[in-house]
Amino acid sequence: MQARSTGKDVFYMAGGKIDAGETPVAALHREIREELGVGVAAYAHLGDFEAEAYGHAPGTRLHMTCFTADLDGDPHPSGEIAELRYFTVAEYAAMTHVAPGSMLVFRHLQSLGLID
């Protein structure tokens, strides 16, 4: 599932920055509640990824600690999120604007057979 923030045209994975003193797992729970309006029932660490940060100055790097998760309800746009959509890897790759970090993680999930 991809989330599009209000006023943006690019879809990203739900999530965000880790606050000072916050663990990646605590950030996972907070960000999912803020952006998808649901809680995390179970999760597994998927990996740590680095990519070019979309929409920032060239050379700006993005570090992502990613998880797979089971949610405790049906996600819906919440907070700054305007829209949620599901994409196959091919559909996402064909879009005009694609976040390199999201594409990297999607390709990894695809290599594991977890998504199409």
TrEMBL record:
Where does the signal peptide begin and end? none
As cofactor, the record names: Mg(2+)
Gene3D superfamilies cross-referenced by the UniProt entry:
Nucleoside Triphosphate Pyrophosphohydrolase
Keyword field: Hydrolase, Magnesium, Metal-binding
**Does the UniProt entry include the keyword Transmembrane?**
no
Tell me which Gene Ontology terms the entry assigns under biological process. Answer: DNA protection
GO cellular component terms attached to this protein's record: cytoplasm
A Gene Ontology molecular function term of the record: metal ion binding
One matching Pfam family is NUDIX
> Superkingdom of the source?
Bacteria
Q: Which residues form the Nudix hydrolase domain?
A: 1-109
Q: Which PANTHER family match?
A: 7,8-DIHYDRO-8-OXOGUANINE TRIPHOSPHATASE, OXIDIZED PURINE NUCLEOSIDE TRIPHOSPHATE HYDROLASE
Q: What family is this protein classified in? A: Belongs to the Nudix hydrolase family.
This one is known as NUDIX domain-containing protein
Q: What lineage does UniProt assign to this protein's organism?
A: Bacteria, Bacillati, Actinomycetota, Actinomycetes, Mycobacteriales
